[in-house]
Write a structure and sequence with these properties.
Length: 206
């Protein structure tokens, strides 16, 4: 199961047909809560992610997103990500990994977590967010790295709740870029991009 596919449907489907009666009332957002003002990601914990294309340092924000940040930490502590692959790469969009091993063998994760969006964190270039299904609270281990600014993936309202950003690449940007431009077949890298290990490291001074 490739957890980000519902996201693509949301971005590409558009309304068509239906009545053109101008007297029809406009739909009302059941939750008019506007997106909160953008915040800077905190570098609470940093990890060195070693891949077959090179190393990246990623910073995780456990202050703004305590559930999502702790979830990622739990998987790292269990060495869950070691040996998993970036199984889905869409050029100039996202690089998704953390749920499959070579041959697209699914690796069962822990219980799903509560969605943390509308906290001021945006799907900016090089940020890391959780993949999920149409069920808002379905994210487990899979994450994606934004290959450019994907603000369409941010919280918009209750019907477009977005995807939970919880970290960012802070070193090794060239590696993130190389992952996203790798050759693919049906969005699957032709050559496995393996996450060899993820280990805690000192956060860089920025």
């Amino acid at each position: 199961m490739k957890l980000l596919y519902p996201l693509l449907f949301a971005l590409t489907l558009s309304a068509c047909g239906g009545s053109s009666d101008s007297s029809s009332p406009a739909p009302v957002d059941p939750d008019p809560t506007p997106p909160v003002e953008d915040k800077e990601l905190q570098m609470d914990i940093c990890y060195l992610m070693s891949t077959t294309l090179g190393d990246m340092t990623i910073a995780i924000d456990t202050t703004t997103t305590p559930i999502t940040g702790q979830n990622f930490k739990n998987y790292v502590d269990e060495q869950f990500y070691d040996g998993t692959i970036f199984h889905r790469v869409i050029h100039n969009f996202v690089s998704q990994g953390g749920g499959f091993t070579s041959g697209l063998v699914a690796k069962p994760g822990n219980d799903p977590i509560e969605l943390e969006t509308n906290l001021g964190l945006t799907n900016a270039h090089y940020t890391i967010a959780m993949a999920r299904t149409n069920d808002l609270n379905s994210a487990t281990s899979q994450f994606y790295i934004n290959a450019l600014d994907n603000t369409d993936l941010d919280y918009q309202n209750s019907t477009k709740p977005g995807y939970a950003v919880f970290g960012q690449v802070v070193e090794g940007f060239d590696v993130a870029d190389q992952i996203n431009i790798t050759s693919t077949s049906s969005d699957v890298p032709v050559t496995d991009i393996v996450i060899n290990s993820v280990v805690e490291t000192n956060c860089p001074t920025i």
